[in-house]
Amino acid sequence: MQEYLASYARNFGIDSLLRLETKVESVVPDAGGWLVTTKGDGVPETERFDRVVVATGVFCEPAVPKFPGVDEFRAAGGVLMAGTEFLDLDDARDRHAVVAGYGKSACDVTVAIASVATSTDIVARQLLWKIPRKVAGF
Fold it and tell me: Where is the signal peptide (predicted)?
């Protein structure tokens, strides 16, 4: 996947725009835009942008909300984990699994565990259409 993304960036000439190993220190609203302060080689740098996209997923810090009854659930043998913590299909093998959410990471986990779990359910606030409704006008 890494090589594919690098190849894609090179092919479309956007690789020179990437800033890897750079920490975002702050994002502050500024007159219809955003001031973004980053720190790459230890030197802070601030730039103004019209738009900011926050794109997190499987490489982010997991955020598992506190659910009522989670202690009882775990005491009965249940396991609660973020998608980034799910690393072994055997954790879902022959179990009844529930995936909370319907984003890319949740769908990836669901597809993987559905092949080994006794049952797999998805709980989501809103179901989204995952593919374009039309491709090439059809």
Answer: none
